[in-house]
Design a protein that fits this description.
- The structure is a single chain.
- This protein has a single domain (2-114), classed as 2-Layer Sandwich (Alpha-Beta Plaits).
- Helix content is 19%, strand content 36%.
- The protein has 2 helices and 6 strands, in the order βαββββαβ.
- The strands form 2 sheets. It has a 4-stranded antiparallel sheet with strand order 2-5-1-6, covered by helices on one side. A two-stranded antiparallel ribbon has the order 3-4.
- The longest helix is centred in the middle third of the chain and has 12 residues, at 70-81.
- One of its GO terms (molecular function) is enzyme regulator activity.
């Protein structure tokens, strides 16, 4: 089993969620986060004063998938998260981590059955 973690633009969350669901991939957690990367910060103006915004608001997605679903899940996620055919700075990142054990609290099931 693998944990897929992605940081994407908030505006792409609905599209990513719909694409994953259409591909038969369920069980997604989304959290609003702030961070910075190649996109860097920006300057915003409030009541005529400039304020440097160092961190950008993003959405962190996490989902556990069976090993055989990994490549399909990543392909669907990346395609839906990309802002256009070429992609642009700030579209996000995806990384994969091994999952040693999963337990479904309600039933006590473990392993792939718990996913």
């Amino acid at each position: 089993m693998k944990l897929i973690t992605a940081v994407i633009r908030p505006s792409r969350l609905k599209k990513v969620g719909n694409a994953l669901e259409a591909a038969g991939l369920t069980g997604l957690t989304a959290t609003e986060v702030q961070g910075r990367g190649a996109q860097g910060g920006r300057t915003e103006y409030y009541r005529g004063e400039a304020h440097d915004v160092v961190f950008r608001t993003k959405v962190r997605l996490e989902m556990v998938v069976a090993d055989e679903q990994l490549e399909d899940a990543i392909d669907v996620l990346v395609a839906a998260a990309r802002s256009d055919d070429e992609g642009t700075i700030g579209d996000g990142k995806v990384w994969v981590t091994d999952v040693v054990r999963v337990v479904r609290v309600r039933t006590g099931e473990t392993g792939p059955e718990a996913v």
